[in-house]
Amino acid sequence: xxQQANAAGVTRLIGVGVNLEKxxxxxxxxxxxxxxxxxxxxxxxxxxxxxxxxxRELARDEMVVVIGEIGLDFxxxxxxxxxxxxxxxxxxxxxxxxxxxxxxxxxxxxxxxVLEVIGAHGGIRGVMHYFALDWEWAQKFxxxxxxxxxxxxxxxxxxxxxxxxVKRCPADRLLLETDSPYGNAQKRMGEPNRPAFLVDxxxxxxxxxxxxxxxxGDQERSNAIGLFQKMK
Length: 232
What we know:
The chain is an alpha/beta fold. 44% of the residues lie in helices and 15% in strands. Strands 1-2-3-4-5-6-7 form a seven-stranded parallel beta sheet.
């Protein structure tokens, strides 16, 4: 997958952790491939208690560029209680602040609460992963200094609201992702997503913003390095 991504022009990848085991796997991949960095996190729908000390120690690794995937998910039936999710998010933000790392935020049905947690940790930097809300919400997250990251969802012809956000998002706050193996572009529906397929989304985003794919690539590289500062 790394070779395929490189061939497509996707030369910097982040393996994102959703629990301690998968975070450790991401770190291992970061050390194995020069194109890969890691995220250490505890997904809001993880049933197990996060081992905060183990996650903190793992996040000190030189290949870790983000605390994530973390966040809140109030739409999934049977997930951890809301109060518990919020408590865990505060705990993960504390680790990010201590280690001076940005955060990667999963949000489903909890935008207000996510903003409240961000506000409680002044100066925290980060990105709204797989952004899927309208421009009104986009402005609120931009106002607190966050980046917006877009995946294959923006290639759906029905998502005019999201396409409007892509058009209006400040150039220096726009990121792209795959969320592979999920989040594929319209033309690959039903196929497992891959980092190389980021180009599918990039082509649509470049068209929406009226710029070339090369211009978008240069901006994306600058934005990614600006947020994930170890990713030189």
